[in-house]
Structures are given as structure tokens and as C-alpha cells.
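Write out the 3D structure for:
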Amino acid sequence: MQRLSSWIAGEWRDGAGDGSRLYNPTSEEVVALASTEGLNLGQAFDYARDLGGQALRKMTFAERGALLKAMAKAIHAEREALIDIGRINAGNTRGDAKFDIDGASGTLMYYAKLGAALGERRTLIDGDPIQIGGARLQGQHILSSKPGVAVHINAFNFPAWGLAEKAACAILAGMPVISKPATSTAYMTWAMVRALSAVDSLPDGVLSLVCGSAYDLLDHIEWPDVVAFTGGAETADRIRRHPRVLQTAAALNIEADSLNSTVLSPGAKDLTYDAFIRDVALEMTQKAGQKCTATRRILVPSDKVDEFVEDIAERLDRITVGDPGADGVHMGPLATATQLKSAQSGIHELMQDADLVYGSLDRGAIKGVADECGYFLSPLVLQARDSASAKSIHELEVFGPVSTILPYDGSVEMACELIQKGQGGLVASVYADERDFLAQSIDGLAPWSGRVVLTDAKIAEQAYAPGMALPHLLHGGPGRAGGGEELGGTRGMRFYQQRTAIQGNGPLINKFLQATDAD
């Protein structure tokens, strides 16, 4: 059994007692222990501010990018070991673990290349010079590194990618990171940081890890710090209301629940329809449906629902559920007993407004697993009795391989009205070949979505599924999705930078900024 220590002030430190137990969700065996009891978490902040932050702010974007590249390579070198940990602690199939780990190293590498492109500078110019008076009197906005610490509190479903997507933006922007993974699946994060801590080019204090309970982590926040959280809405609300966060006005970024939707238009061609079926099945079963971007609501024209149910059933029938280490298994268990219990409770609530049209509430056959062991839930498709009045479907996210069909009249207006009932989401996707339908979807969905994915026949075979968060594009969403923003190239760095207006002699300011970048 592995004991997970915390990486604080340049040392691996064990907390007192047994702390929290981490389980293998297939066998229900304890695989690791994590405790922060008795640890001085304040030292992590001091060390990060005194060493990590100063070191990063002295580095150019290109130098920070080189550091991210070294970090990406260190993760890739441990890929096979991390895949195995994903299997025993998160119930990941090999494909699911690779999705997480390669997402982490790929995101770091993307921001490494972005750093190289930004070059030998430390600040970014934000917009053009603004004439505010005579010929020389000008203003110029700039973006510089915030002089604090980035505290990252991550979700259980992506223990590798969750750390990397936030850390890449923060480190390139010039802020040191304290990462707090969800304890239940922290084994992979711990192993990844073990590899990263051995990177020779990583300055002291740039990266810290807290494995176990957060305890008084947020009590050490100061005004220049930032807090980024991914997880449930209830925890997000507690963080928003934390006295220290309120007192210091530290910047806060939240990614929370999301009832992501996908729409099939009445006139979708065969290639577009095939992509729709493919992507719905993938989003239901990848990571056992435990993705913040997974599709929860499926909008299908009423006269095509029977055809869709038949086709998605045929696709899902190919999915074998079982021990993620067994040959031929496509989907493993949910990550924890708590997640399974929550999903089962949520399904019963959804069924107040919907009927089961695919799958069984019974456990069914689980390949490679004896008796009733493990936290397994087979794919389920429900269908709303009345799409507009199905309150639970528009309010409750079941975090598992569960999605609900919402029949609609085929109009883009009704499709958008139904999606808007989710009160803001991370991603909405539309599969259509009618240009007016696609264009009107942008107008109807953009204010309610962090990302809108449009798929037509010309790109259907090469398009990414909507659940794929890309480092190039924004990840986040309004309303119930948390109101936050991550990634999106340089946009992801903005949260970690201070925007300042420099006002005065324009030519002189320009020389100062050029000189600062060249130092």
C-alpha cells in the first residue's frame, strides 16, 4: 500500500495518522493512504512566494516555455506507470488513462510552444497605444505576472490533466503553483509530481503538492494570490464564501456542474448523423461518463427519436463493462463508492421526468469481476416525457454513463430554449447541414455556453467530439458551469496576470517596455 506524501518547501512530507483511504474501484481494495494532518501548509506559500515566484518572474516567456517542455517530457517518460495507477485508483481503461495523461503532457507542450513564440519578454502588451492628449501623451495597457501564488484545487476525474491545464497557464504567466488534487484519485497526481520534482530545470518553489485534506489551505491566501477550482457546485460555493477569500479579494476561478447538450438537426446528412451517434456514445462511456464536458442532454427531432434510440443502442451494445485491466473491456467502474451512490440516486430522480429506453438499472454482467464487487454502472439512456417541463433533467447532472433524450419539434428556436434551461454550460454541440440552423445556433447558444461545437458533413469525419477540451480554445462556461475561464492560448494566462495602464510620455514608455523585455 502506497503512502502519498505532500511536496512542500522542497521536501516530501508525510502527514500524521492514516488520513484518507484511496480505493481500487474495481476490487474495492485500499491502494493508498493520504494525510495532511500536522503539516504546515503555510510553509508551502512562503516557499512559493520567496523562491518560486521570484525565479519565474526573472525568466522570460521563452525560458518558462522551456520549463514546461521539460515537465511534459518528464510526464511522458512515466506514461506506462501512470496508466497502471489510473487503472488501480481511478478505474481507468488504458484508453481512458492515456486520454488523461496525454492530455496533461500535450497541454504542457502546447504552452511550451506558446512560450517560445512569445519570446524573450516578461510582460505582454495589451492592445495598441491610446492617445490621451498631445502628440506624446499616451496610455498603454500591459500584462505582468501577479506577485502571489496560484492555488489549484482539482477534481477527481482528471488527476493528471487537471493539474497540467492549470499549471501550464500559471507557470507561463509567471506564478508558482500549489496543487491540491481530489484525494480519492490523488495517487496519479502524486506519482506525476514525483517525476516533475526531479526535473533539473524546475526552480525551487515553482510547484507544490498537497495530498490529503485541504485543512487550512485557504487560510493562508493573500491578496496577490489566485484560487482556481474544478469540482461540484456545493464545494465551489464554500470556496466563494471562505472568509479569507472574501477578506483578501483574491481572484477566484470556478468550473462547476454543467448540463452539456447536443443537438441533431432535422436535415442532418448521413455523415453528420453518423458523427452524432459516434460522439454521443463516446461522451457517455469515456471515463465512464465522468467528464465535466460529457453530454447529458440529447436533443433529437421528435420524428427521429425511434431511429436514434435504435442506432445508439446498437453502438452502446458494443461497449463491454468490466475490469479495466481485462482484455476487451471498454468501460471501467465509477471512481468511488460515493460517486456510484450519487449516480444511482440521480438516476431515480431523473426517472420522475423520463423513462429508461436503453440499459438496465440492474448491475448486469461485468467482465472480469466476481460477485458484486466494484463501483460499476452500465450505460443508460433515458427519454423525457415532456422536454420542456422535465425539471430534473434541466437541473440535475448525473456524473456517470447516463444521458437523456429530449425530443423537440426540429426548430432551432426550441432547441436553444431547451438548452438554455440548463442555466449555462461548458459546451453545447450542434450536428447540422442547414446553414441557417447552424448560424442561428450560434446566436441562441453562445451567451449560454463556454464553447459551441458545430459539426457538418464536410468536417464530420475529422471533427473532435465536443467533450475534448483543447488548449487552443476556451474551457469554462457561464452560470451553473461556474462562470470561469481556462486555457484558450494566451487567454488562459490572463487570470494569473495583472493588467496595468501605463500613462505618460508615449515614446518613452515604449522604450521602457522594450528595455524591460530585453533585460
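Residues 349 and 392 are 7 Å apart (CA to CA).
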